[in-house]
Design a protein that fits this description.
The protein has 312 residues and is α/β, with parallel strands linked by helices. Helices cover 29% and strands 16% of the residues.
């Protein structure tokens, strides 16, 4: 038996994007035992994955986590995060490791000088490159997302006029510059002819309440469902509208048609929907975009044209 430890602390989308590595290791490596380390808040993304034998969580103390991991006696560490904490963890465990190349210099060039020297390779294929020397290859089956039975949302939970089909709009985003402003959200919602389910966390409920009054054809679930329940709603949708955020990758894992909406970030970073049908809505007529590889609380230029000038 060969024991692998995969490291990826956050966040939703990044963790979902590592699932091909998990699956391919488990299914291609003889008698592989696969463990995974993440933050406690993302445990639910992994605990139902049949290709993972054990999930460890970073709660508060990295030292406590390392003590737990030392007793497992791993053969290999697969570091798909490659930051300071994972570097400390690898050094302390002292076993052979393989680390993901984050291409930070290439991203910096794209953000700073708007010159794209990024390879035309999806981040999933770059994750897979990390385990290539172990003889593990991409099986091209896409992303995985496993919803436990208890979180499957029954159709009769939805209003009656939604039960013959609906669209989903995932309205959230970790950074404001990756989300449409309210006025543009309203504009988008008015273009969607199907019954529309809004998904998001409690932090999105103030916006979702304002969207839900536009029409009786909009049903607000923000803050009412956990992550797996929101994924269940996505699984049963006809189409998913989403910003460049974690739910975009959840939708891709569930093989949905995705309309992806991009603000300050760009698909050239390699994190567009993977192996699913998708369309991109973005403003390519700006010299200031991308302004960040992640995002900001507000547009640094003050105009937010990357979102305000979008056409639906």
């Amino acid at each position: 038996m060969t024991k692998f430890l995969i490291l990826r602390f956050s966040s939703i989308g990044d963790i979902v994007l590592t699932t091909p590595v998990i699956r391919c290791l488990k299914q291609q490596y003889l008698e592989a035992e696969v463990h995974y380390v993440t933050k406690k808040s993302y445990q639910s993304l992994l605990e139902n994955n049949p290709n993972i034998d054990k999930v460890f969580v970073l709660d508060n103390s990295l030292n406590d986590l390392i003590r737990q991991l030392k007793s497992e006696r791993y053969d290999y560490i697969i570091d798909l995060h490659n930051n300071l904490r994972t570097t400390i963890l690898k050094l302390r465990l002292g076993v052979k490791s393989f680390s993901f190349d984050k291409l930070n210099f290439q991203k910096w060039i794209l953000v700073k000088f708007k010159k794209n020297i990024m390879p035309d390779v999806h981040i999933v294929d770059r994750y897979m490159k990390t385990v290539e020397s172990l003889g593990v290859r991409n099986d091209n089956k896409g992303l995985d997302y496993f919803i436990p039975e208890k979180d499957e949302m029954p159709l009769d939970w939805l209003p009656e006029n939604f039960r013959n089909g609906y669209a989903v709009y995932a309205i959230g985003g970790q950074h404001e510059t990756k989300k449409l402003p309210l006025a543009k959200m309203i504009e988008l919602c008015k273009t969607i002819s199907q019954p529309l389910v809004l998904v998001g966390g409690k932090e999105d409920s103030v916006i979702s309440e304002q969207l839900s009054v536009i029409s009786t054809n909009i049903f607000d679930t923000c803050g009412k469902c956990n992550l797996n329940q929101s994924a269940s709603l996505i699984k049963n949708a006809n189409i998913v509208y989403t910003h460049d955020t974690g739910m975009m990758h959840v939708a891709a894992a569930l093989k949905k048609k995705v309309i992806s909406i991009w603000g300050n970030t760009v698909p050239a970073f390699g994190m567009y929907p993977y192996q699913t049908d998708f369309e991109v809505i973005e403003n390519n007529n700006l010299q200031c975009r991308p302004c960040s590889k992640i995002g900001y609380n507000k547009c640094p230029a003050g105009h937010f044209k990357c979102m305000n000038d979008l056409k639906f």
